[in-house]
Amino acid sequence: MSHEGIRIVSAEQAQRESAEEERLHEDAVTPKKVRVMKTEGTGVEINWKDGHHSAWSFAWLRNACPCATCHEERDKSGRPVGVAKPKAQTLLVMYEAPVRPVEVTPVGKYALKFKWTDGHESGIYSWEYLRRVCQCEMCVKPRGDSASS
């Protein structure tokens, strides 16, 4: 008997995957206006065609990187999207400059790609992904997110 194609997933992962399978309306994932406040160092804001407004800090976006490596690390550690990795305990806490994008590039008409000050650059932030991780109160509440921007 073959078990090929059978995966055992946690209830949380199954819920997340089923939510990802639900398609959002085209206007919900089509930006009307995108503002990347790179010079100010604050973050990204998107006004969507359906009238919704989303905003994320750069730190939150870096911690929510959708690349396979970051996604897998978050899943293994149980860390929610947008939450930073815990820092190692040390006697003397060293200052660490906040992560910022060095470069922001559009990817076709469907996403943004960031090159971060920490050297990471493999995540492609699709419009659909960004809408699904919207941090406004209206979106966070139904998802039960513990992390906000």
TrEMBL record:
Sorted UniProt keywords: Iron, Metal-binding
Compositionally biased residues, Basic and acidic residues: 14-27
Q: From what superkingdom does this record's organism come?
A: Bacteria
Q: Where is this region: Disordered?
A: 1-27
Say yes or no: keyword Metal-binding present.
Answer: yes
GO MF annotation terms: metal ion binding
Q: Which Pfam families match?
A: GBBH-like_N
Q: Where is the Gamma-butyrobetaine hydroxylase-like N-terminal domain?
A: 38-131
User: Matching InterPro entries, A to Z?
Assistant: GBBH-like_N, GBBH-like_N_sf
What name is this protein filed under?
DUF971 family protein
